Amino acid sequence: MSAKANDVRAVIELKITPQRESGFGRIAEKISRFEQVEACFLMSGAYDLLVFVKGDSLQDVAQFVAQDLATIDGVLSTATHFMLKTYKSPGAAGFSADERLAVTP
User: Fold this and answer.
1) Is residue 18 a contact partner of residue 24, using CB atoms and an 8 Å limit?
2) For residue 30, how many other CB atoms are within 10 A of its CB?
């Protein structure tokens, strides 16, 4: 899936059950292999994995979550957050250097 200007992006929080001998690693590796997954992180806090995904539409991402992620053995719950507008992102030209806030000691 190549990146397009109208791609839909989402961040998905996953609660998972750690596996004997592999902890969170086996499930994280399985999730990372999906074409839709751009990044996958082990997190501290209320959820275990933070997954960044992209799709062609809201329905495409929702279907991926419902049919692929949520059905993996060990996934207890998901919470999907759609990215609506980008204000700052690595490599994105959201504003010029002149518009940045000055940092003073």
Assistant:
1) yes
2) 16
C-beta of residue 40 within 8 angstroms of C-beta of residue 31: yes
Q: What is the pTM of this model?
A: 0.80
CB neighbour class for 73 (10 Å; exposed up to 12, middle 13-18, buried from 19): exposed
Tens of pLDDT, residue by residue over 28-77, are: 999 999 999 999 999 999 999 999 999 999 999 999 999 999 999 999 99
CA–CA gap between residue 53 and residue 39 (Å, rounded): 7
In order of their start, the domains of the chain are 8-85 (3.30.70.920)
Give the pLDDT score at 52: 97
How many C-alpha atoms does 2 have within 13 Å on its Cβ side? 1
**Residues 6 or more apart in contact with residue 34 via CB below 8 angstroms:** 53, 64, 68, 69
Three-state SS for 102? Answer: coil
CB atoms within 10 A of CB 27: 22
What average pLDDT is seen over the chain?
Answer: 88
